[in-house]
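Cross-check.
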Amino acid sequence: MSIFQKQNNGITLLALIITIIILIILSGVTISILAGKDGLISKAQQTKEKYLISESLEKLELEITSLKIEEESNGNNFTKETLLKLNSDSIEVKNIDKFPIKVICNGYEFNIDENYVITYVEKTEEKEKNKYILFKGSTFIDTGITQEQLNSDREFTISTSVNISRENQRKIQHMDILGNHYGTSGLAWQFEGTSNYLLFFVSYSNTIRIDFTPYYEKWTNIVMTFKQGEVKVYFNNELIATKSNTNLIPYENFLVGNGYSGDRAIIGEMKPVRIWKKELQKEDIDKINYDDKNTSIQNTYILKEINFDDTEEFLNSIIGTNYEIIEI
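Predicted model, tokenized:
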């Protein structure tokens, strides 16, 4: 009796070991099928990625086609500079100096050739995004930078991106986007709502006036450079105005969102403001990124960067409470 019991136990143990081995093999095969390089999960991720790339490519093609139709219907030539009008929350035109033009759409990089054919390049790395501020009136920021500091080397650059509300049209006084002035002293970017123009001046007698009608309620990248009395103004990376023989007469601290009078606070959105102690050239201006925290321009020359990121420095610098901080 005991002999048969031992034999049965031996067979049972052997069967158990074989079963365990088979299960291990099967589980390994299953894991390989699911999670391997060519597994189901990987293939699903690749399929999803291909779909997102295709969707972004289709979006770019549609936007370019629509822009071509719009420009041609207005009697304008469609050039590589026109592509800057594609800039939006999901599309960023990186450089228009020469073809192919680099464009980021939904986090994917594409090239556009001279025939405006789009090809996929790669997925861009995730970067830490900036925030932007919505000024609702009666609120501004004191940067702590004096205009004497700006004028000390007679050379500087100021950049930001703005989306100005039509609510400013109701106001007769000039709305100050940034700067600070009084009488003939000071530097400012002003918006005049009744006539729809933007006024740049380095002292009151040296002004540049630009029609703002085409830029209403859309993001517009604005850069102003100053060197040895020459002022240049860029809209969306395009040089649109130059004035020589100007003279900056400093006036108090440099403000963002308002001028010397409380009723001159702007209504609209603004992305971070950067001030460089250097006249940026066109190739540098093309590299300014208004959405990512790290701009590709050398930070060595940055005198001040005004980010709207709820830090103690920012909260201490803002005057008023009629604003909102928004994620880009």
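The mean pLDDT is 80. The helical segments are 2-35, 40-73, 147-151, 282-285, 312-317. Passed to J.P. for a second look.
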